[in-house]
Specification:
The protein has 324 residues and is α/β, with parallel strands linked by helices. 32% of the residues lie in helices and 24% in strands. It binds coenzyme A (COA). The site of coenzyme A has 20 residues, from helix 2, helix 6, helix 7 and strand 12.
Length: 324
């Protein structure tokens, strides 16, 4: 049965742009190295008055406006983040309060860079079982707050931002293959790789927020293998070939991962939405941010078949196929 339908998208970025050249004044790196190894040219960095919730609220408002629906009709908010405003309560409850749709369901999902894929599937399940009729699914991060700005192997890779989508419950009857909605989705996790990508702090261990630690080359190798495998699974579940895809909206970690994954599946690079040059890796925000950019600039249109995919710390990874 076709799943929840996407009614609108929105995104938000901090005011301040930080270029590679600006970073090179602070750490031992260069614009040439960053562009050649990652494709990143700039990132947005939150200022003191910009937090995960302020970015999430702005993205949510933009998605509601795009969908043409009132905040009052939202019965479920699922917010993916690894950088919440506070350890608790969930940042989703701050979004709910700001939008004035109190009383429904609101919670955060922690799956780092795959967080938006996890959040979409959780929201789709709750909508499918009738727990709510309409949902906001948000990916929002201020990763700049957990970066070690002395560590050139990680600090050049990430940025801040938020993206959001409005989902509506499935119609509840059999739909044809061209009907809008989520057609298939898969999620995975493998805790064996904790030490390849993690934050070295937390409330229950160090009582500090900690900093991102990553073994980049190992993560790179796992990312290409895991992402191609999950994309194949979702295509098989939906009974469609890679050729049928209009667009792939991948997690924006590194242009080389996007190229290698598309190549492995025989997907033309022209069908892959790439925004990593402008935003760097915004973790859970990157997929909805890229989706919003490509819808607003007219590339992704109603009726298109779109694959969303991501991989992140945990490891966690997943993909979701949706007809817009
Ligand atoms: N500027 C300049 N040089 C740098 C640098 C920087 N910012 N960061 C690392 N280097 C150096 C290294 O010290 C190393 O030098 P050495 O050869 O003298 O030891 C050299 O560049 C190559 O480093 P390496 O880590 O092997 O480079 P790489 O080609 O694997 O690229 C990443 C590094 C991090 C860009 C790449 O591995 C990557 O993108 N991995 C995936 C990360 C990711 O996507 N994580 C998020 C998943 S959600």
């Amino acid at each position: 049965m076709t799943g929840s339908r996407l009614l609108g998208t929105g995104s938000a970025l901090p005011r301040r742009v930080v270029t590679n050249a600006e970073l090179a004044e602070r750490v031992d790196t260069s614009d040439e190295w960053i562009v050649a190894r990652t494709g990143i040219r700039q990132r947005y960095i939150a200022e003191d008055d910009e937090t995960t919730s302020t970015l999430a609220i702005a993205a949510a408002r933009a998605a509601l406006a795009d969908a043409g629906v009132d905040a009052a009709s939202i019965g479920l908010i699922v917010l993916a983040t690894a950088t919440p405003d506070n350890t608790f309560p969930a940042t989703a409850t701050k979004v709910q309060q700001a939008l004035g749709c109190n009383g429904g369901i609101a919670f955060d999902v922690a799956a780092v860079c795959s967080g938006f894929l996890y959040a979409m599937s959780v929201a789709d399940s709750l909508l499918t079982t009738g727990m709510a009729k309409r949902a906001l699914v948000i990916g929002a991060e201020t990763f700049s707050r957990i970066l070690d700005w002395e560590d050139r192997t990680t600090c050049v890779l990430f940025g801040d931002g938020a993206g959001a989508v409005v989902l509506e419950a499935p119609l509840g009857e059999a739909q044809g293959p061209d009907a809008p909605g989520i057609l298939a989705a898969r999620l995975h996790a493998d805790g064996a790789h904790h030490d390849l990508l993690y934050v070295d702090g937390g409330p229950s261990t160090t009582q500090t927020t900690g900093h991102v630690r990553m073994k980049g080359p190992e993560v790179f190798r796992h990312a290409v293998v895991n992402l191609s495998a999950v994309l194949k699974e979702v295509l098989e579940d939906a009974g469609v070939s890679a050729d049928a895809l209009d667009w792939v909206v991948p997690h924006q970690a590194n242009a080389r991962i996007l190229d290698a994954t598309a190549k492995k599946l025989g997907i033309s690079p022209d069908k892959v939405i790439v925004t990593v040059q402008d935003h760097a890796n915004t973790s859970a925000a990157s997929v909805p941010l890229a989706l919003d950019v490509a819808r607003k600039d007219g590339r992704i249109k109603a009726g298109d078949l779109v694959m969303l995919e991501a991989m992140g710390g945990g490891f966690t990874w997943g993909a979701s196929l949706i007809r817009l």
